[in-house]
Design goal:
The structure is a single chain. By secondary structure, the chain is an alpha+beta fold. The chain folds into 3 domains: 58 residues, Arc Repressor Mutant, subunit A (Orthogonal Bundle); 130 residues, no CATH class; 99 residues, Endonuclease, Chain A. It has a 4-stranded mixed sheet, sandwiched between helices.
């Protein structure tokens, strides 16, 4: 008789957790009509398994990355947020696979039991913590700064560029926050500062273009500048030398584009030129295989005060 009651109440609990991320807590256990003895028996027989203190999953429910995130967030409450690579993966940044679960908590909570990866911080501002898909997480800016301590240069570069591309952060925002919390001795800050030198584009090719200009001592252009067409539609250009009224596009497209694409590009270029902008375009082959052509072309369009610097760099 007792086993039949347990089985019935267990089924009720399974139905209840379906609306709570597949996680049971003591309130749901009570709502399912389970007595303390019945619940202890279910735990003792490994029917329900603890994920974190106060949160359990049915043994038929896989222990996924998302389930651990949900359990950890519920356990730690408002004074916690996803940390570093975990936060970056939750934001969907490139190069950040969902393979670990780490949280950031204030230093005052450092004595919590280590059920999940916990990191503490003295620096905790409102801007560092946001709600994304119902989970408290470090902002993309803070996540990148924190993951710099352990990430490879390639992974950090991918996360950084995708965060800029997705408008989750910007180079000025990252630089400002990094200067605020990146004190002497903070791991990864030197690498991040180096990567920021060529950040601001939206792809590997645009980063390579910025690096090429920097190494040639050519002034850095503004990346991702928005112009409005006559019909108020947005035109976003890759790079812009504002004072010289020069726009640079770097194109990584492979193969042929449609007539519609060519028409759109031509009209876009015509409108920019009608506004007295010079429009220069480079392909992947130009940027990666013929950097001297790129630098010579750029310096040829800039003001005379910049040309000598760029040409000297090409000769080197």
């Amino acid at each position: 008789m007792l086993s039949e009651v347990v089985r019935t109440d267990d089924a009720t609990l399974i139905e209840l957790v379906a609306d709570h991320g597949m996680l049971a807590n003591r309130e749901l256990v009570a709502a399912a009509g389970l007595s303390p003895d019945q619940w202890r028996r279910l735990l003792r027989n490994d029917i329900w398994l603890q994920v974190v203190p106060g949160r359990w999953r049915h043994r038929a429910t896989p222990l996924t990355w998302e389930l651990q995130l949900l359990a950890g967030s519920a356990w730690l409450g408002k004074q916690a947020a996803l940390h570093g690579r975990t936060a970056a993966a939750w934001w969907g940044l490139d190069g950040c696979t969902p393979d670990n679960v780490e949280f950031l908590v204030p230093r005052s909570r450092r004595h919590l039991p280590p059920w999940l990866g916990l990191h503490t911080t003295k620096e905790w501002s409102k801007g560092d913590v946001l709600i994304h898909r119902d989970i408290r997480t470090s902002s993309a800016t803070r996540a990148i700064i924190d993951m710099a301590a352990t990430a490879t240069p390639r992974a950090l570069e991918a996360a950084l560029d995708s965060a800029v591309r997705l408008r989750l952060t910007s180079v000025p925002t990252l630089t400002k926050r990094m200067n605020q919390i990146g004190g002497q001795g903070r791991s990864g800050i030197r690498l991040l500062r180096t990567l920021l030198l060529d950040s601001g584009g939206e792809s590997f090719l645009e980063r390579a273009f910025l690096r090429l200009l920097r190494e040639a001592d050519i002034p850095r252009p503004q990346p991702q500048v928005v112009h409005r067409q006559r019909d108020n539609k947005v035109m976003r250009v890759d790079f812009q030398f504002t004072a010289e009224r020069v726009i640079v596009e770097v194109s990584g497209r492979q193969g042929h584009i449609s007539d519609r694409d060519r028409q759109r590009d031509a009209r876009r270029r015509n409108e920019l030129q009608a506004r007295e902008w010079k429009v220069v375009e480079f392909t992947t082959a130009d940027v990666l295989d013929d950097p001297m052509y790129v630098t010579a072309t750029i310096t040829g369009h800039l003001e005379p005060r910049h040309r000598s610097t760029g040409r000297a760099a090409v000769r080197r």
